[in-house]
Design goal:
Elements lengths: L2 H5 L2 E5 L5 E5 L10 H30 L1 E2 L8 E2 L3 H4 L5 H32 L5 H8 L7 H11 L6 H8 L15 H25 L4 H9 L4 H12 L1 H15 L4 H6 L11 H11 L3 H25 L3 H8 L3
Antiparallel strand pairs: 1-2, 3-4
């Protein structure tokens, strides 16, 4: 082997038959960038994200500890008054209860219906067409969705109002005018719009389920339901976690459709905590109190998100931790 061959990056090698072959490793045209290069490339994005997230968060903490928004009064330290008054704020307590009730109903219905639709659509002949149709509600802005359902619930000409009265479910009042069923009305709107997101994410997870495991389980005598529970469900756990976290965080912050439909009424029946936060901050302009409510909501959302991650931990990881894999 000549020196030119060695310089070009060629070296002799032998396969199992003893025949020598020449491997070629192309020389890199440019040297590998250093870690500092990547840091400088990401620096503008990091600075921008810090400016639109960290600074508002610090300002939120500042406002929560001061009286902000009072007419003709400077911002003054209030000795945690914005937080201590939560103990006697009935609307704050009621807002938490309604928020948990609203979020629980939305999550249960959306995950249940979404997973069922994903299983039905998976590998069906009209899968692409049906998925496109199902995703259409999710493409609408929440404000537009609220307006559409406001017309459907209208007591004078709403089609849903007429249908519910015709089958005897609804009395003389409208859906959004009855404090007993108004919560179910706004839950139906959220389920209609965001169940497609759960379906899409679950469908992506079902595409990655190993078919050989499903076929082997069927050979052992497992039916479709058992096959789904024992094989498909553990494989789509990470996807379900993403879907649940996305919808959980959205339910704790989206108020667009609720403001259009009920505005928190009737008689505070749908006045969930984010709606109450909106009223305190932008109706009464009590920015200090609103910041305290927002900070509390943020902390509780983070804690509940960590709990959900723990509950939805991949069962295959648990098996590995116990040493059975």
């Amino acid at each position: 082997m000549t020196d030119q061959t060695m310089a070009a990056g060629r070296g002799p090698s032998a396969d199992s038959g003893g025949v020598k072959r020449i491997d070629y490793a192309p020389t890199a045209l440019n040297p590998k960038p250093s870690r500092r290069y990547y840091i400088w490339m990401m620096a503008p994005s990091i600075i921008l994200l810090a400016g639109i997230s960290i600074y508002p968060f610090i300002w939120l903490i500042y406002m929560s500890l001061h009286t902000v928004g009072e007419v003709n009064q400077p911002d003054v330290w209030n000795d945690f008054k914005n937080f201590t008054r939560f103990a006697t704020d009935g609307k704050f307590h009621n807002g938490w209860l309604l928020l948990l009730q609203y979020s629980a109903m939305c999550m249960a219905l959306e995950v249940g219906i979404g997973v069922l639709l994903a299983v039905i659509l998976n590998r069906s002949k009209l899968e692409k067409v049906l998925v496109t149709l199902i995703l259409m509600p999710m493409m609408m802005a929440p404000i537009i969705t609220g307006l559409v359902w406001l017309f459907l619930y209208n007591g004078a000409f709403g089609w849903y109002h007429w249908l519910l009265q015709s089958i005897g479910i609804l009395g003389p009042t409208s859906v959004l005018g009855d404090s007993d069923i108004a919560m179910f009305g706004i839950v139906a709107v959220d389920v209609w719009q965001w169940t497609p997101l759960i379906t899409l994410i679950t469908l992506a997870g079902l595409k990655r389920v190993p078919q050989d495991q499903l076929e082997a389980n069927m050979v052992d005598g497992a039916g479709p339901f058992r096959n789904f529970v024992s094989i498909a469900l553990p494989n789509i756990y990470p996807f379900l976690l993403i879907a649940v976290l996305l919808r959980f965080m959205d339910n704790f912050r989206f108020i667009d459709a609720i403001l259009v439909l009920t505005g928190g009424g009737p008689a505070d029946a749908t006045n969930i905590l984010p709606v109450y936060l909106f009223d305190v901050s932008f109706q009464y302009f009590k920015l200090g109190r609103g910041a305290a409510i927002a900070l509390t909501l943020l902390l509780v959302t983070i804690v509940l998100g960590m709990v959900l991650v723990k509950l939805f931990e991949d069962p295959r990881r648990k098996i590995k931790h116990t040493g059975f894999d």
